[in-house]
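Lab notebook, design round three. We kept the backbone fixed and only want residue identities now. Task for the bench partner: fill in a sequence for the structure below.
Input structure tokens:
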């Protein structure tokens, strides 16, 4: 691998420049509040970078309920693994909904939602949001895309398996899918 001459010669690495020019959206957060973000994150969500500093992650979610439920879902996974990753529907400043791959790591494993580093990747070109979904349907859709069964989704979301099945049936109608696998294929953008 050929490194730039100044790095190869032992010069200091400018981590701020790397953070600002990363090809994915990145931010540093504390207690689910954005402390700083790079231009890619701000552009992805349609905000000027300074506008997101000091903002709760809630401004990036379709609803406050989805923000709260996602936080509840993240905590046990972060406690067990020290990191979290999923794909979910997020909201741009203009209220457009889009699929986003989100990955984060807590800086202190004892505080899963304390200080952390998060990356965001817009996957809407591969997976457009093509149907009007309720907040709960968006949550169920994201968990289906992860390959989870109705029983596991029910446990993770604090719902009964029957309620999950009702939401899955609604998603199948909205996406004109006749099987669960066809639904997942449509959710991930494989028409």
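Proposed sequence:
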């Amino acid at each position: 691998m050929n490194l730039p001459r100044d790095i190869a010669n032992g010069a200091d690495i400018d981590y701020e420049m790397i953070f600002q020019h990363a090809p994915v959206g990145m931010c540093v957060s504390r207690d689910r509040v954005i402390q700083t973000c790079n231009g890619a994150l701000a552009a992805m969500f349609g905000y000027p970078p300074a506008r997101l500093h000091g903002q709760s992650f809630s401004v990036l979610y379709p609803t406050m309920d989805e923000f709260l439920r996602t936080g509840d879902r993240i905590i046990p996974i972060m406690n067990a693994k020290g990191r979290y990753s999923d794909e979910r529907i997020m909201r741009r400043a203009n209220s457009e909904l889009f699929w986003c791959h989100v990955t984060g790591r807590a800086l202190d494993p004892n505080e899963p939602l304390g200080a952390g580093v998060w990356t965001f990747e817009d996957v809407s070109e591969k997976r457009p949001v093509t149907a009007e979904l309720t907040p709960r349907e968006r949550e169920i859709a994201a968990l289906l895309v992860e390959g989870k069964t109705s029983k596991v989704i029910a446990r993770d979301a604090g719902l009964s398996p029957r309620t999950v099945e009702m939401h899955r049936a609604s998603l199948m109608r909205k996406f004109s899918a006749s099987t669960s696998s066809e639904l997942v294929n449509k959710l991930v953008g494989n028409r």
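Keep this in mind before ordering anything: The chain has two domains: 1-129, 130-191.
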